[in-house]
Task: inverse folding
């Protein structure tokens, strides 16, 4: 696995690339110090319990929807926990349970919304746009925490 250092000058591009879904969005090719085209990890979204940096040198930024990693997402009914060693150098960036509860319907929008709001596209779109606005505020708070150094008080072990 090839890895590139995360720096203040490439942080924004790296974060953007982590959410660039194949087919739906263009990849990001402007990450300073990292040649190539970068996209969302796809299969990694299914929470493989793997050593992200096997040599343990450095940190892995893992933006995610939830406060925990569920290994083997396809096997989520088994309720396993990740191997501790695989998460030692992972910095998981996720909204808090409190934030999620503050969203309309107290949840993050998902593909089930298409059936929940069947025939109510306007209502679904209003819901999604409301969540997008709240997420913009959350993103601004996150970047402020990084720039001010408050992130050191916010980060906690998994």
Result:
């Amino acid at each position: 696995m090839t890895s590139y250092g995360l720096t203040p000058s490439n942080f924004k591009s790296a974060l953007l690339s982590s959410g660039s879904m194949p087919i739906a969005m263009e990849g990001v090719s402007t990450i300073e110090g990292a040649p190539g085209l970068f996209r969302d990890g796809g299969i990694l979204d299914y929470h493989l319990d793997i050593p992200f940096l096997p040599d343990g040198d450095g940190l892995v930024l893992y933006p995610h929807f939830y406060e925990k990693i569920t290994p083997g997402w396809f096997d989520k009914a088994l309720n396993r926990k990740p191997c501790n060693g695989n998460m030692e150098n992972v910095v998981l960036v996720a909204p808090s349970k409190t934030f999620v509860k503050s969203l309309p319907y107290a949840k993050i929008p998902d593909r089930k919304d298409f059936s929940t709001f069947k025939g109510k596209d306007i209502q679904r779109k209003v819901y999604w746009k409301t969540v997008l606005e709240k997420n913009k505020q959350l993103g601004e708070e996150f970047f402020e925490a990084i720039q001010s150094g408050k992130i050191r008080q916010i980060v906690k072990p998994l």
